[in-house]
Amino acid sequence: QLHLVESGGALVRPGGSLSLSCAASPFAFDNYAIGWFRQGPGKEREGISCISNKDGSTYYSESTKGRFAISRDKATNTVKLQMDSLEAEDTATYYCAAGRFCSFHPANYPSWGQGTRVTVSS
Known about the structure:
The structure is a single chain. The protein is mainly beta. Helix content is 5%, strand content 46%. A hairpin with a 4-residue loop joins strand 7 and strand 8. The longest helix has 6 residues.
């Protein structure tokens, strides 16, 4: 019932933009907050954004605030992460995850997608 699939990862130049999508099962979309995490080479998994299923509240890490925007679309059960002004440091595998509430702690999310790779390079 908690099924998540990410898409949209690509190679993009510094300063460019990219939109990632997380297709969720209807049950996950209606009952769980959806968070976005990323894990760069040799780094720990980092929570970067989350959107609440209850009231649509959005949350961002300091590293992404002002550059990334999260949104949800009930018509398609999809959560999108619009990423602008991308930097080399944004290079990572990006994951979406379903949790009972918004948090930047991976342990609070019982269900994860398989990830999508984002590379920012000239």
